[in-house]
TrEMBL record:
UniProt entry keywords in alphabetical sequence: Aminotransferase, DNA-binding, Pyridoxal phosphate, Transcription, Transcription regulation, Transferase
Similarity section: In the C-terminal section; belongs to the class-I pyridoxal-phosphate-dependent aminotransferase family.
Gene Ontology terms for molecular function: transaminase activity
Region Disordered, residue ranges: 108-131
Keyword Transferase included in the entry's annotation: yes
Record's compositionally biased regions (Pro residues): 114-126
Protein name: PLP-dependent aminotransferase family protein
Residue ranges of every copy of the HTH gntR-type domain listed in the record: 7-75
Amino acid sequence: MREAPFGGRADWLAGQLRQAVADGRLPLGSRLPATRVLAAELRVSRGVVTEAYRRLSEEGQVEGRGRGGTVVVAGPRAAGPGATRALGSGAGGRAVGSGQLAHAAPPYAAFPFTPSPSTLPPPTPSSPFGSPPGDDVFDLIRTAAARIDLSPGVPDLAAFPRAAWLRAERGVFGELAAGGFGYGDPRGTEELRRAVARWLGRYRGIRVEPGDVLIVAGTAQALALIGRVLREDGIEEIAVEDPGSLGVRQHLRNQGLRTPPVAVDGEGVLVSELRDHRAVLLTPAHQFPTGVVLGGARRRELMRWAGDGGLVVEDDYDAEHRYDRAPVPALRSLLPEGVCYAGSVSKLLAPALRMGWVVAPSRYREALVAAKRYADLGNAVLPQLVLARLMESGELERHLRLVRRRHRRRRDAMIGAIRACLPGAVVHGAAAGLHLLITFGGDDNAGTDDSAGTGDFRDTDLAAEALARGVKVHPLSWHRQRPGGPPGLLLGYAASSVSAIEEGVAVLGEAVVRCSAGAGVRGPNTRTAHR
């Protein structure tokens, strides 16, 4: 930059950017670096970068999109020789890369157009983190390329009991009569409903008859059917935990239900906020995403609320995965007519099976069966029979014991890596589940009450920086409705090896430093806590 004409650095930078757009290094739709980041990289004032961006905006080549950044929207128009001159064709321009100036040809080719991992620009609009999450956000994050995937909610897929499944499948085919290949009961096969009833009695404390169980295509379909039935009953909204699952909100809203937030603290949902609501969806055994267990006093308060006519939809999404605490009984076991219970094998075996169940209060049972019938005539029969055989033979229980041991080792490795590489992080929800929540710069509560202030960066920027470095994580802010609260990340450990977990967390440590430096402020608080 020293050779750029004095007082003309904004012109010089605008010319470099025009040329980069013209030769395809900044393609249409790409997002320019944040002005603060680029100014630091080029060692110029932020005003130089702002002025260069302003000029390109006036020419119609870029467009400011608020939190979405500055985006290339058109190719360059004809301009004078000084503007269209090839990179480096001026008086001794310099190449910029990795934060330092160096003589090279052509100049400026190393940043931001072919960046090293440590100087990658913010995400493009197609990035999962480049804008507020849309309906396809989980499709985008699942298909995003990454060396290490620490996404939450995925079990150890490599541990799927293939041999046991094949044995059970051979047994089913060997015994199945010809009539078994016809249309099945929309409620599910008798064999699986009986096996699920026994499983729930043993592991979740729920006394239920096979006739009370409805087999569905995972919790996603359970929520869709429940939402439809509630709408038919005149219920237009269902309260949800905040923070709480973005995916759950998306499914409920797709059924036309409003999802007002109710706060979560260290004891679970604040039942006092349910006074004006008829229904609420909860994850009481292992709250998503904080990992909090609904406390005893809150459970009693919630049961009084439900006894007065409220409905609890209990999403028991990963209750079997516990490591450092005794099992917590399902709410359904305490007040059957006030709780609509949903569970699945997505976190126990694999999401690909698309297999789950609903146990509803008697007043909604037939309506849910009708909704299931008209949705798809019932789940595929053959996988149901195979799963029932796994459950009844004890194979599923053996699988659960195996993955608990493996998940615990991986969880411990992640906690150790966080302590070593992210000393400012507060760890939440370690006693159970398939993921950890870490927060930065706030108090120990990951909920919406942020009395200690927020961290020094946005967690979406941190997740984008991690993805640029090859590590996939989810930002906590996706799962909040109310503003405020410290930034955080959801880190899945069940599906990754110990070495991948340690490498991934080390990369996150580098990303935190980068994001803190990009914000122009100190890094997160350097204290460690474990919850």
